[in-house]
Each structure stands twice: as C-alpha cells, then as structure tokens.
Amino acid sequence: MPIAMITGATSGFGRAAAYRFAAAGWSLILTGRRSERLEALEQELGDKVRVLTLTLDVRDAEAVARAVEELPAEFREVTCLVNNAGLALAPKPAQEVDLADWHTMIDTNVTGLVNVTHAMLPRLIATGAGASIINIGSVAGSWPYPGGHVYGATKAFVEQFGYNLRCDLKGTGVRVTDIAPGMAETEFTLVRTKGDHAASDALYRGTTPLQAEDIAEQIFHVATLPDHININRLEVMPTRQTWSPFTIDRD
Ligand SMILES: NC(=O)C1=CN([C@@H]2O[C@H](COP(=O)(O)OP(=O)(O)OC[C@H]3O[C@@H](n4cnc5c(N)ncnc54)[C@H](OP(=O)(O)O)[C@@H]3O)[C@@H](O)[C@H]2O)C=CC1
Ligand SMILES: O=CCS(=O)(=O)O
C-alpha cells in the first residue's frame, strides 16, 4: 500500500486527510507537536492501516532530518508528502503586531515546510513516478487583505517554492501541487486569535465555510491522479466567500 506523510495531522486538514487516506488503505506517517493527539489517531486508525506517529516540531531542522533518516524500513518508500503544518497569528494591522508573531509564522510556514521538504526529497525521488508533494498554501498567498501581512507572504512563498521545485524535479516523476484553501472551519482561527473562542465562532457563524473534510478530499484527489498529471495549483473557496473591491483612503 502507498504511504502518505502528513505534517500537522493533529487537527484540521491534516487530521481529516489522515482519515481520508486511511479509508483508502494507505499507510500513514503522521506528525505534529501534540503527542497525545497523535496517540489517539494511532489508536483510531491503527487497526485499519499501518500508522507511524512522529512528535515533531517542523521548525526544528535537525529533528526533522533525524526523524526522516530514522524512518523504519517499512515506512521509507513515501508516495505522498502533505506539507500541511502551519498557522496564522496576529489578525491586526502590521504596525501593531509583535515581531515574535511574524517570526513564528515564517519559522513554521516557510522554514518548517522547507525543512520537511529538504529531508523528504531523496525519499520521494526514490519512489519516483506517482510520488507527490502537496503543499497547503492559502488564498492569502494571492489575495492581500488587512491583517494578512506576514501570513499571506509565507503562503506566497509556498506557492512559488512549489513551482520552482517542479522545475528541478523534472524527470524524477515527483509532482508538486499548491492547494490554496479559502475560509475553512478548523482550529485555525482559534490559533490565530490565541484562544479567542468567541472570535473564532463569530467568523464562521451565519455562513458556510469549507470543512476540513472538503480539503482532505482535494488532497486525496490530487495524490491519486494518474502519474502523468500534475495539478500546479488548486484554489478552493466556499461558495459564500468572494473578493472585496479595492479600498480608497479619502480626505
Ligand atoms: N483553516 C483555514 O481557513 C485555512 C488554513 N490554511 C492552512 O492549512 C494548514 C492547516 O491548517 P488548519 O487545519 O486550518 O489549522 P489547525 O490549527 O486546525 O491545524 C494546524 C496543524 O498544524 C500543526 N502545526 C502548527 N505548528 C506546527 C509546528 N511548529 N510543528 C508541527 N506542526 C505544527 C498543528 O499541530 P500541533 O499544534 O500538534 O503541532 C496542527 O495539526 C495551515 O498551513 C494553514 O495555514 C490555508 C487556508 C485556509
Ligand atoms: O489561510 C487562511 C484563509 S484566510 O483566513 O487567509 O482567508
């Protein structure tokens, strides 16, 4: 059975993707920082499919490299890497943000994603045709909005990094896709607001956001396309989300 490695599997898209791949019988390498959640996942899915859990902070390049180096033999031939671990912080104007929050987003969404990709590239190339890297970007990487500052910029990096990877991976069979979701109801806003349940609930109230399972389905679809198809970018919004017009500062 093919193997999927999913970063940030303890919540949201990553967790839903773990269930989706498991339903199709894939073996799973599931990572995240919250080991108790990883253990729960292993208990829930381990009866059906092979599951390896790795408690891992993607920001720690050495730990990531070591974990990949030490993958047990039966988990080495990875078919799909889902670079999903990420977060937004500080939904307020750039001039009011703590520098530490910008660093955390860059360290996680950019450096962390790069750490995992660098460690996994030899494995994916060894797998060859049919292998894929699926990076979770965001609409925020293409569309600016107030309070998006560094978060959107990290997701623009994710998109361009994927395109550049594609150039270098030509001939290896390894595909690269940027899946760019719009508003989705996960723990994302709770993290972004540092635990403000009321703000998180208010954002999703009265509309129909994407659910984690919607994005998991897209991830699985991209991962299981015929070997000769590479979707470069897939932007997915809720039907009830669209763009705003330009705003004008007037006297
Ligand atoms: N929800 C949304 O509206 C959208 C989200 N996205 C992106 O989707 C991805 C998943 O987010 P979503 O599921 O919504 O949010 P969640 O907060 O529900 O899940 C985020 C996951 O990332 C993991 N994570 C965060 N930081 C680290 C770290 N340093 N090391 C390892 N794992 C980490 C968390 O695990 P743990 O805390 O256990 O480490 C968790 O499993 C992110 O990249 C996000 O930017 C993109 C577009 C829309
Ligand atoms: O990436 C998350 C979606 S949004 O909050 O930027 O619209």
TrEMBL record:
Domain of life: Bacteria
Gene3D superfamilies per UniProt: NAD(P)-binding Rossmann-like Domain (3.40.50.720)
Keywords: Oxidoreductase
SUPFAM superfamilies given in the database record: NAD(P)-binding Rossmann-fold domains (SSF51735)
Family assignment from sequence similarity: Belongs to the short-chain dehydrogenases/reductases (SDR) family.
Protein name per the record: SDR family NAD(P)-dependent oxidoreductase
Organism of this sequence: Halomonas rhizosphaerae
Lineage, highest ranks first: Bacteria, Pseudomonadati, Pseudomonadota, Gammaproteobacteria, Oceanospirillales
